[in-house]
């Protein structure tokens, strides 16, 4: 990697750090290519990304971002998982780490809040942004549904009474 490629890599990572909601630092303890490909696929499905970056370049890219505290986690064979959704990257990384002991969660950061490994696991247990939106829509929609049921109930009762009288007279 020559100097211009390194500066491009730092600029790309810096742009990523300025856009995302969460960054999770993982330690790669000998993942095979197939396992790494599987992890990247699961990250993509969750709406997150997974990137192996040189620690020195990642530390340069972290400067002047809200994730500057992550520098202490960037030692050894590390990789970065990140997403705009504050839960997606953490959830995908923790789920993969449960089934594969070659991936270790080192720590992370959500905005300016630095998280240790337990903090990332706690973040992963929270519902995702889409799940929260679905719950909110359900809560807003429930009263309207109940109002419609209450308004329609007398008419439905009258229709059943008329139906019963018509069947009684026909018999």
UniProtKB/TrEMBL annotation:
Q: Which gene encodes it?
A: rplJ
Q: Name one GO cellular component term.
A: ribosome
NCBIfam families in alphabetical order: PRK00099.1-1
Per UniProt, which keywords does this protein have? Answer: Ribonucleoprotein, Ribosomal protein, RNA-binding, rRNA-binding
Protein name listed in UniProt: Large ribosomal subunit protein uL10
Q: Does the keyword Ribosomal protein apply?
A: yes
- Assembly and partners? Part of the ribosomal stalk of the 50S ribosomal subunit. The N-terminus interacts with L11 and the large rRNA to form the base of the stalk. The C-terminus forms an elongated spine to which L12 dimers bind in a sequential fashion forming a multimeric L10(L12)X complex.
Superkingdom of the source species = Bacteria
Species name for this entry? Parerythrobacter lacustris
- InterPro entries xref list: Ribosomal_uL10, Ribosomal_uL10-like_sf, Ribosomal_uL10_bac, Ribosomal_uL10_bac_type, Ribosomal_uL10_CS_bac
As for family, the record states: Belongs to the universal ribosomal protein uL10 family.
Query: Does this UniProt record's set of keywords contain Cell division?
Result: no
- Physiological role: Forms part of the ribosomal stalk, playing a central role in the interaction of the ribosome with GTP-bound translation factors.
